[in-house]
Amino acid sequence: MSSGSLSWIRVRAIARRHTYVLKRSPHRLFDVTVWPLVDVLLFGSIGAFVGQGGGSGEKAFGYLLGGIILWHVVYQSQISLSTGFLEETWSRNLLNLMVTPLKEAEYVAGVALFGMAKLVVGVGLTALLALIAYAFDVTDIGWGLLPIAAILLFVGWSIALFVIGVVLRFGSGAEALAWGILFAVMPLSGVFYPVEALPGLLHPVALALPTTHAFAAMRAILDGRSIPWDRVALAAVGAAVLAGLALLFLTKMLGVFRKRGFISRYA
User: Fold this and answer.
1) Domain locations in the chain?
2) Phi-psi region of 92 (alpha: psi -120 to 50; beta: other; left: phi over 0)
3) Which of 6, 22, 30, 160 has its CA at a distance of 20 to 30 angstroms from the CA of residue 183?
4) pLDDT band (50, 70, 90) for residue 58
5) Phi then psi dihedrals of residue 221, to 5 deg
6) Distance of alpha carbon 126 from the chain centroid
């Protein structure tokens, strides 16, 4: 680069260059548009829940800690599978994998197995800290914890498959979705509060998410009620539909990836 006085034309050229990149990769707007909206929606809904008399302080405290611990089931399962695939792109190892007899399902299963170990460690540490620091024992949820955690696990994997499909189609510029997509889902899922605390316009969207019903079941159990199997069933059906759609999307994007020779991006 040359030294000397600044040229406004060259400054504008660089700005325009990045504008063209943004136009071709609109997913790069995620950090600019989605994060501020998520912050307002998440903390605004928490404030609305508390302001509307969201039960006793102990109940709200239980909702918060229980939500954080179970949310890590979704987060750890999704981020482990997503970054497991991204590691292959970062190390330029994707081409090597594609010329081996390894099947796609075998690869996904292997990464998911490794991710399970990370999930156990991450969620275990979160639950242990909640027990030591705040005397909150997540096992007080009882046997209802198992189906809820299993549903959240499958939701995390399904979202990861969707992220992998997007990266296959659009390249490394879509990696931001791996880190941010769950935090767009979090406020809509009512992790820390009932759906009623959300703006009314978003209620149908929230009720369409399997995570919403899973966390509603968690709150019902924390309130001392029996396991709401209707909510658990809705969450399970939603998770199954989401998994099917994610697999269909990933299969289609993998076909596009091969047909158009996008492997050259990682050679």
Assistant:
1) 27-266
2) left
3) 22
4) low
5) -70, -40
6) 18
